[in-house]
Amino acid sequence: CRQRWPPRFAFLGNYAVFLFFYVLFLTLVPQVILGFITYSREELLNIRSASTHHQYNQEYDFPEAEPVLCLSPRTTEWIPAGDLKKQLRKRGKRGGLLVRLRRRAHCAPLPSILLTNVQSLDNKVDEIRARVAFQRDIRDCNVHCFTETWLTGETISESVQPAGFSMHRTDRNKHLSGKKRGGGVCLMANETWCGHKSIQELKSFCSPDLEFLTIKCRPHYLPREFSSIIITAVYIPPQADTSMALNKLYLTLCKLESIHPEAAFIVAGDFNKANLKTRLPKLYQHIDCATRAGKTLDHCYSNFRDAYKALPRPPKADHDSILLIPAYRQKLKQEAPTLRSVQRWSDQADSTLQGCFHHVDWDMFRIASDNNIDEYADSVCETCVEDIVPITTIKTLKPETVD
Strands (DSSP E) along 89-210, which ranges? Predict the structure, then answer.
């Protein structure tokens, strides 16, 4: 015979079936009903227009609760409550030297410089090329200044220079320095900033106490107050005689300054314990952050105050890399232009002035001048010109000297 379920289990089974059909009803029926509701394109556009242009003119007063929304005094929109000065969005461009440099990467008054002690440039060629390819700040940097390149005459420049840069280097000479390994300085100039034909190597030097390379650049964009930009890469070993090294560097820079008095001078490199300001106090040091073990061993000098801002880059070697962002403002922008009023002459003004002379009351001016012919003519001409020729206001910039 067939087994029957107890009444309690039969009730639970019926209840489960009821819940199943109830959930199925709640799931399917709304979808079927919503399927019959359709909107045309015009109706949807009207709904959007009504929702976006709705004005809330009614003022709500909740004295016991803190306001969540408040009406802006400048607009009729409801904004989150709080300090209105913080809520209003500031318009304009982003500020900062790095943002300004990115906007005019190759048209800055002074070149942007990447200064680093690479300690064997041959081992870091792949990293440099990767950074030039994928990092905008490194790719658009105008000059790469490398010290301790450890290059020899057997290494050709094309094998270590990235694409789009011209390479100028001075390797360590074992006959002049007494060592055949280590040392060496290198300058890589961005072709977009300055072509290789506009770069001239002025002087290179190698000794046990000092190694440097000086180049002269005439970039595509150059402020009028500069005739050229002279960049010197310097490396002074830790065990060097700093006094002899600084004296040699001082004599070289003074000679170059006498030959190129209108040039901008930039001296950058690894100075270790030396300080160039002891010999050239008119130069300004722009690196104020530590570059190795809490000490500032890498320096950058120029003949302009606040010409650069030092931005440390992520350390990848024994010395931290420094990105020098130009902060110098050319003389054209340092002083505000002067305003003056001038008369704007035109062909129409000339013809109108001729007609004015025919209709002017000459007797009135003759009586006022007391028969003085000079005063008589001047008063007539000045009055007619002031009435006919329009006056406009123009800006006059400070004149600059061009070398």
Answer: 113-117, 143-147, 165-170, 185-190, 199-206
- Per the rule left: phi > 0, alpha: psi between -120 and 50, beta: everything else, 93 is beta
What distance in Å separates the CA atoms of residue 265 and residue 256, rounded to the nearest whole number?
9
Region of 268 please: left (phi>0), alpha (psi -120 to 50) or beta.
Answer: beta
Spatial distance between the Cα atoms of 395 and 341, rounded to a whole number of angstroms: 9
Number of Cβ within 10 Å of residue 234's Cβ equals: 25
- CA separation for the pair 32, 272 (Å, rounded): 82
Please tell me whether residues 78 and 193 are part of one structural domain: no
Q: What are the E-state strand segments in 262-384?
A: 264-270, 284-285, 298-302, 308-312, 322-326, 338-343
For 158, residues 6+ apart whose C-beta sits below 8 A from its C-beta are none
Quick one: 290 and 380 in the same domain? no
Rounded-to-10 torsion of CA 372, 375, 379, 381: 100
Contact 219, 195 (CB under 8 A): no
Neighbours of 341 (CB within 10 A): 9
Q: How far is CA 9 from CA 17, 20, 290, in A?
A: 13, 17, 82
CA distance 324 to 317: 18
CATH number of the domain enclosing 238: 3.60.10.10
pLDDT of the chain, 403 residues: tens digit per residue: 445 555 655 666 777 777 887 787 777 766 666 666 777 888 888 887 776 555 545 454 545 545 544 544 544 555 455 555 555 666 666 778 888 898 888 999 999 999 999 999 999 999 999 999 999 999 999 999 999 999 998 999 999 999 999 999 999 998 998 888 899 999 999 999 999 999 999 999 999 999 999 999 999 999 988 999 999 999 999 999 999 999 999 999 999 999 999 999 999 999 999 999 999 999 999 999 999 888 999 999 999 999 999 999 876 667 889 999 999 988 877 777 788 888 777 777 777 777 777 777 777 777 777 777 788 778 877 777 777 777 888 877 766 544 4
Report pTM.
0.67
Domain that holds residue 78: 42-87
Question: Is residue 366 in a domain?
Answer: yes
